[in-house]
Write a structure and sequence with these properties.
The protein is mainly alpha-helical. The protein has one domain. The chain has a two-stranded antiparallel ribbon. A hairpin with a 3-residue loop joins strand 1 and strand 2. The longest helix is centred in the last third of the chain and has 34 residues. The chain is elongated, with a radius of gyration of 22 Å.
Amino acid sequence: MSPDNDDYKPFEEWDRPRQAWMLSGDCRGHRQRTLLLEMTTRALFPTVLVFSVYLLLVGHYGPGGGFAAGLVAGLAFVLRYIAGGSEAAVRVRPPVLIGLGLTVALLTALAPTVVGAPVLTTTKLALDVPLLGHFETQTSVFLDVGVYLLIVGVVLDLLRSLGAGIERDMRDAGEPR
């Protein structure tokens, strides 16, 4: 609403969320909202996702990799689900992520056989990226990206299936949504 509108009430609407991604959703009543958790989730969610990408990229030179990074990203989505309900969790269908992760991991594992090397052979890639300069990485990072997508998809699928059961049980018990 704008100040030009006759129905504009600035003192009644100043604290309403402006972004749709963290609204409380349909499964939470206004008495069940935890504003502190919602605001903390808004700050932590992108931070935890960036940390998971860091784990994904550093995993070849230390502990971490696709599995650990996928679990950390999954925990970020669990936090977002707890704070905002099923509507705030994610917009991508989990089976798509699972299938994409499996495809990327499988193609990466089988790619060395094209040049006569054994399955899962890794090598060093060196590229000259126009804006970034010289860039070096291991080919196993692509396998880890596939595992990352697979784990995030599995966690989101678990959230979707378990959350649907919880919401169904609440609806059947007659509790307010």
